[in-house]
Amino acid sequence: MSEIESNTENGILKAARIVFTNKGFDGARMQEIADEAGINKALLHYYFRSKDKLFEAIFKDVLNTMFTKVISVLMAEMPLFEKIEKISSNYIDILTQNPDIAGFVFHEISRNPERLVGNMKSVGANFEIIKNQIGEEVKAGIIIPIKAEQLIANLMSLCVFPFIAKPVFMGITGMNQDDFLQFVEDRRQIIPHTIITAIKKDK
User: pTM of the predicted model, to two decimals?
Assistant: First the structure.
């Protein structure tokens, strides 16, 4: 692929990510993506023959952005409490830098959950590893009995929900953008403290 072709394809992907994350698969139009990229529709179809193929490329890219660093922490050899702290911090960083992707991903999950499952496997997610670690820490008396599914659901929801519900939070509380950014920054410590306090077994 020549440099010109590479630049054109990258421009298309950048434009498509903007349109898809704002409007979702159903609301996006190929003409709108072409306009955003500054090319004609025929050239867009030369690089990506269908909206499905273009969307698949964008969805994989967004999932990589949202989950790759988090999954690498989950799969790493480190204490559970340290994982909780790192995952919370990673999510705050990722979603602050990419504020539109949380709502986009969860909307598209409801539309096509199989797409997420397949792509999560491709980025190295192995639920058994974290499940086994939680079981071992329960047996060791470090944490109270808790299912891995519940712990992961609690951690993800505490990290992600404020970004999905951002307009509601800002509307109800009167937050401005700076207030919201400080709110999520405060959660960098609040989330792991809340979860670790809830699951840590009293000596």
Answer: 0.81
Q: Count Cα neighbours of 57 within 13 Å in the Cβ-side half-sphere.
A: 15
Residue type, 7: N
Domains present along the chain, CATH in parentheses: 1-49 (1.10.10.60), 56-199 (1.10.357.10)
Read off the pLDDT of residues 79-100 as tens digits, 9 standing for 90 and up. 999 999 999 999 999 999 988 8
| Of 98, 112, 89, residue with least CA distance to 64 | 98
Q: 142, 201 in Cβ contact below 8 A?
A: yes
CA distance linking residue 127 with residue 152, whole number of Å: 10
Q: What φ, ψ does residue 200 adopt, rounded to 5°?
A: -70, 130
CA torsion 148-154-160-165 (nearest 10°) is: 150
